[in-house]
Structures are given as C-alpha cells and as structure tokens.
Specification:
Blueprint (H helix, E strand, L loop, with lengths): L1 H9 L2 H6 L8 H9 L18 H4 L2 H20 L9 H10 L4 H28 L8 H22 L5 H12 L25 H6 L6 H32 L12
Length: 258
C-alpha cells in the first residue's frame, strides 16, 4: 500500500516539477542534485577531504557566517522595538529587556553573537595565515577577508552606541576621539591642519554629526549599523564565497613529496 502511494506521488507532475531526476548514486546525479537545487547549487559538487577536516579548517569561516545570519535575524527583530532618538533610545532598551516577551533573550543573542563574531573572524584570519591560504591564487580573497574583518569591527563599534547608556556614550567618545589623529583627515593628525582640517569639518565631525556625541551621532550610527554596513558586508561576503569557489575551494596542505 505504501509502495503504491510512494510510486503515485513520484509519478505526479507536481513531484516531477520539483525533483527532476532520481536519487541513483551516480556521479551525474550527484552533480544534478547540487546544480538543480536553489540552495545546494551554491556549493561545489565535490570537496577536498581536508575541506571537511575541522582540525585543519577550524570551521571559523562557516561559524562566522552563521553568526552573521543570527545577528541579521535578531537585529531585524530588535528594530521593531527601538527608536534611534536620544529621548527614546535608552527607555526602549529598558522596555525591551524588562517588558517585551523574550526581549532579553533576543538582545543577549544579538550581543553575544556580535562578540563571538569578532572572535571567530579573527581566528579565521589567523588560521588562513597559519596555513598559508593567502598565497597565490588567493591573494585577492585575502584582501576581501581583511576588508570583512574591518567591517566586522565597524559593525561592532557602531552598535555599541545604540543602547545610549553611559558606557556606550563614553566608549564611543573615546573611540571617536582617536579619529581626530587620523592622518590627512583629522585636525590633530599628520598633515591635517595643513589640509584645512578643523574640529568642525574633520573625520570625527563627519562620524558624529557634531563636535561631541549627541543625538545626530546616535542617528548616524544607527543608519551605519542597521543599513549601510550590513549591506556592504553582505556584498563582500558574496564576493568572498565566490572567490573561494573560483580559487578551487578551501586551500589544503602542501602535498608531501614522495
């Protein structure tokens, strides 16, 4: 009875429109299973043995991407309860932590995932360096990885201000004060005064929207953290994954000479 039902389902037009071939274990069908699937086609048909060896790869790249997805989902949820205005931001965070069902869980998932992503991205870069995975033909992807590391730091830094408490305000004050010493772009940096940089037109003023941390800074950091930086990061992630595929997959150990 079950065999007849299974056969009838597999012979239906609906089933055939979704699954276009059988599951016989052949090299051709393995390739078709990957190529014909909207999710699996992002992955190669074959992978090297070392690519699934966690002792070699540490899995830090995949873990970092998983954390980025968690941050995206939890961040979108947090946006429903947060208003980027100085008079509401702190109270919205208190409301989220104390009154919203599972609000504390969502916020802490976002917070700890952000901390972990910084760690895992750094470990991923460290592993790539140790295994020489930045060498030809992967130099371009190494540069993309460095840019993604900087974007991770910027995402973490811009998100730090959003709770709008004393810790956030003074931490961002210290961080942005360092921007004053940026070469060429800061009014206290090398060649800055010669180029006409002042406290009201240098890179720190651009970041804060003023000469000190205030409501304009909160709004700018919110836009950077929730819109601009995630979009740029997603674009560079797509390029990064594409280059991994084009460069022959995850780099492996040097073959031993016989």
């Amino acid at each position: 009875m079950l065999a007849q039902i299974k056969k009838k389902i597999k012979s239906s037009e609906i089933y055939k429109s979704i699954f276009r071939h059988g599951y016989e274990d052949t090299q051709r069908n393995r390739a078709l299973m990957v190529v014909d699937n909207v999710f699996l086609h992002l992955h190669p048909v074959r992978v090297s043995r070392h690519a699934v060896n966690y002792g070699y790869t540490w899995g830090m790249g995949g873990i970092s991407f998983l954390l980025f997805i968690i941050l995206t989902i939890t961040g979108v949820i947090l946006m429903f309860y947060y208003r980027p205005a100085a008079e509401y931001a702190y109270e919205d965070m208190k409301y989220l932590m104390n009154d919203v069902p599972f609000g504390a869980l969502i916020r802490n998932m976002h917070r700890w995932s952000a901390h972990l992503m910084v760690i895992t991205v750094m470990l991923h870069m460290f592993r790539v360096f140790l295994t020489g995975s930045y060498k030809p033909p992967r130099q371009f992807n190494w540069v993309i990885g460095v840019i993604l590391l900087l974007l991770t730091f910027l995402l973490s830094f811009t998100g730090y201000l959003l709770p709008w408490d004393q810790l956030a305000i003074w931490a961002v004050t210290v961080g942005t004060n360092m921007a004053r010493a940026t070469p060429f772009l800061g009014h206290q940096g090398p060649f800055g005064p010669e180029l006409g940089m002042r406290p009201d037109n240098d890179i720190r003023f651009l970041l804060l929207g003023g000469t000190q941390v205030g409501p304009p800074a909160l709004l700018r950091f919110y836009v950077l953290h929730c819109i601009f930086l995630p979009l740029v990061t997603a674009i560079f992630l797509a390029v990064h994954f594409w280059r991994v595929r084009k460069d022959g997959g995850i780099s492996g150990p040097v073959p031993k000479k016989i």
